Amino acid sequence: MVKKATIFMKFVNGQVSRGYCVNRITLTNREVIAKRNALFSEEQERQAALVRRVEKIRVKYTGIPKECTMVMNKSISTPADCLRHLPERMLQLSVLAYVNGEPWDMSKPLEEDCELNFAHFKDFDPRKLLTVNKAFWRSCSYLLGFAIERSFKEDHRVLLHSWPAPQIKSGSFVYDAVLPLENWEPNDRELRALGNPVRKLQPEKASFERLEVEPALAKEIFEDNPYKHSVVDSFAESTENKKVILYRCKDHVDISRGPMIGNTGFIRDFGVASVHAFETGIGLVYRFQGIAYPSAFTMSPFALGVLRDRAKIMNTTGLPNELNRAPGDSKSESTTEAEVPDTDDENEQTTQAHKAAQ
Fold first, then answer.
1. What residue spans carry the Acidic residues bias annotation (predicted)?
2. Which of 36, 211, 226, 294 counts the most CB atoms within 10 A of its CB?
3. How far apart are CA 358 and CA 348, in angstroms?
């Protein structure tokens, strides 16, 4: 942490807080990323230090190839740790955990004696399959934010705005962002380049780390982004313990209720299909639309091309009603099957953040 603190003191000529200089009016994209990552690490270490005594719990695994009971560490061991005691094939297939019948992140510590199972992309249980698919799309939207923040020059300040809940039938996952660009229309080369940061992550199998934090810390982490900062209180009010759920993949930190997939190795052919600009009350907002498919499947170039062409069409999921209409149509399309609002946090995040745009 000392090294990171020193870096920030070099970055910023401002007030020192918690060992980091965080109050300069304008930070570069890289400085903002590094600051959030450092604060996340500090809080993660603080919470880990709260576990003073190791207690054992019994975890009953009920999946294939056979049931077994594992003795794990309370508040330390995660479903990912449990997977290491199972055949290698299970590690390759398992996308999401189920603890006592409820979806559970692979990186979320187990808190009590429990029953554990895993879900995968070809699961026979339709409810699990739907949850896995939504987790996949949610994770892809999250990673689209990762790509956006890392694809522009430092003199182009990127402000991630929000993303709607996964709507699988919409044809693309999305992320809205505010950029200091006017009427930017990326060409094919630029669209390919936008997907590069995530494509590089795929072979790394980078994991998604989950962390619950107090609203005050979440506001500090996102104090450089007014859109993220503005949804912290409403997000915390919607959770049972009044905390904000953060996820980190590599050095990217964002807000989401989750769950996310286990790691980036489950994603294949990630790409940005289109970018659409639309006017709002806060100015011009760019909607980035992506496409990918799970690693458990194969797809021909022709089929992938069809999906990419579909993903180029503007996805209106989660947009204010006045923007959610077909050209020349006076009726809102927001009630179509592909755009029925989800109960996920991203839809709430988008709704709250877009209030200023209505």
1. 339-348
2. 36
3. 15
